[in-house]
Amino acid sequence: MRDVTSILPLSLETVSFLGEGRKLVDAVSLVVPAGGVTVLLGPNGAGKSLMLRLCHGLLTPSEGRVHWAAGATGRAKRHAMVFQKPIMLRRSVEANIDHALASAGVARLERRERAWAALQRFGLLERATQPARLLSGGEQQRLAIARAWSLRPELLFLDEPTSQLDPAATRQIEELLTGLVAEGITVLMSTHDLGQAKRLADRVLFLHRGRLIEDSLAEYFFVEPQTIAARAFLAGDLIW
Ligand SMILES: Nc1ncnc2c1ncn2[C@@H]1O[C@H](COP(=O)(O)OP(=O)(O)OP(=O)(O)O)[C@@H](O)[C@H]1O
Predict the structure, then answer these.
(1) Residue 1: inside a domain, yes or no?
(2) Which among 99, 123, 200, 235 counts the fewest CB atoms within 10 Å?
């Protein structure tokens, strides 16, 4: 029977991650409910990527706990992650999606259907048989999102998904993300691009030195940040 129990909200309870002899993520607590785009902002090394990896389960907190909605099952397959630099297998575009679905335990016939739907949805049908590694950067990122989408995630994590792309490819990815949110997928992403954060964010989490120092609706954050660090960041001043 299909699992329809939502995995959301995702909750972090005083999550810390220790490394390099210090707390790289320091006692972060937050809740991600269903819906919308939450953007992680902060200077280099603030801990944005670590946060996404902790949420997705690629890293284990040194302290505290990451947990999903009570009673949710099948959670491993219902959140997916897209990385800054797409990880492409040395296979065709379609085989890259097929591999992700096979790893998630999807049966062969259904894999074909879902891969085809993803290729169509993300404008990659004509590229289906081409080697994924020969796609342009923008196409590879589109494939990475298509592959994640084929897993039918409720929550999609994206770590600086457009930092390697030109403005046109960036716009295309942003439009795709807006479409995914309209479909009901919740997005938690990091970006360096303030313009992008303004265009996409419903909510902003501002990290500084591993600490979550602002958690605001985007409309407030960009107009009236509450902390000196966030004000400096928005003004383009160097903070560390
Ligand atoms: N797996 C790890 N183990 C130990 N230290 C790590 C690990 N991953 C990252 N770090 C360190 O943790 C700090 C935060 O890194 P992180 O990549 O999360 O920052 P970020 O906010 O994403 O930065 P950027 O904007 O530059 O990508 C850095 O000092 C980094 O060197």
Answers:
(1) no
(2) 235
